[in-house]
Design a protein that fits this description.
Radius of gyration: 25 Å
Structural class: alpha+beta
CATH architecture: Orthogonal Bundle
Number of domains: 1
Number of helices: 6
Distance between the termini: 83 Å
Low-confidence stretches: 165-170, 256-268, 270-291
Strand content: 15-25%
Helix content: 25-40%
Number of strands: 12
CATH superfamily: Transferase(Phosphotransferase) domain 1
């Protein structure tokens, strides 16, 4: 029986390890409610510090519910937020036994299952930029990997998530180091978050510890690797601005492509001249021999 991976949301025939992102597939408690607000609960996808992600169905419509672990309330910002480019808003929100919940369309995959290339990854970062900027500059949590999802072939951030006091300063894959030290976040913090997400979308894991380069070359780092690692510096002063980082990534990708095209064109033209030279040389040699 196939089961949804709690990290990338892909279906896997394995009951132990996901065939796509190689994450462990855990068994979750069965003491879940049978339904929430008319949505029938089919499975528990993931349990985090702040809440649980549940697979639900209603009238043949598949969706995902995020249910907060503790009693709480929605903030005015969650309720009145008009939405930003790069965000997906809840289909429904409410309370289950005083615990807030939100219902989202069921994603095709999360950032953990992206495994995309640098060109597509920077396009995704650009599409999420305004939403990320608002979150970071307003001193809020950066999104978790499971909150960056692909819905209707577009990458979005799950928005309107109820906050819990337990998770305000918990380590986050995409949060800048200065947040964990309770320092003020700024544009350089946004740079760190953007570079983390960029790396994660390509590698399927956070750039923690001795992160392997995107180019997969451990000995000769590419200009793209150096740009990413500079943006991941623990010291904010050593990072570029967020827009500069995106521009640098785009130039490294486009520049490499243009050089390749130029090289191919140059070699193609050189090849034509070589063939012409050989042809003319052979013609002159035949004329000489027949004279």
């Amino acid at each position: 029986m196939s089961k949804y991976c709690p990290h990338c949301l892909s279906q896997s025939d394995s009951t132990d390890v996901c065939s796509l992102c190689h994450s462990k597939i855990k068994s979750f408690p069965n003491d879940l409610p049978s339904s929430i607000s008319g949505w029938d609960i089919k499975d528990c996808l993931r349990i985090t510090v702040s809440g649980s992600y549940l697979l639900v169905k209603k009238d043949n419509q598949r969706a995902m519910i995020f249910l907060l672990n503790s009693e709480g309330d929605f903030s005015e910002e969650d309720l009145d937020n008009p939405g930003l480019p790069g965000e997906i808003h809840p289909l429904e929100r409410g309370y289950y036994k005083k615990r807030p919940f939100v219902v989202f369309p069921f994603p095709e995959k999360t950032a953990a299952g992206a495994r995309t290339n640098p060109r597509e990854a920077v396009q995704i970062i650009s599409s999420l930029y305004k939403s990320l900027q608002k979150r970071i500059i307003n001193q809020k949590n950066a999104p978790e990997p499971q909150e960056i999802v692909k819905i209707n072939k577009s990458w979005k951030i799950l928005s309107g998530m109820p906050c819990s006091t337990l998770t305000k300063h918990v380590f986050n894959h995409f949060s800048a180091p200065e947040k964990e030290k309770f320092h003020h976040l700024n544009d350089k913090s946004l740079t760190y978050t953007c570079s983390c997400i960029f790396y994660y979308l390509i590698k399927g894991q956070p750039p923690a510890g001795l992160a392997s380069p995107i180019s997969k070359d451990e000995y000769n780092l590419s200009p793209l690797d150096l740009t990413v690692f500079r943006a991941l510096s623990p010291n904010p002063e050593l990072r570029p601005g967020s827009k500069e980082f995106i521009t640098n990534i785009q130039s490294k990708i486009t520049g490499k492509s243009n050089i390749a095209k130029l090289a191919n064109t140059t070699f193609g033209i050189a090849g034509i001249f070589i063939l012409l030279a050989i042809g003319i040389g052979l013609s002159l040699l035949l004329i000489y021999l027949n004279s």
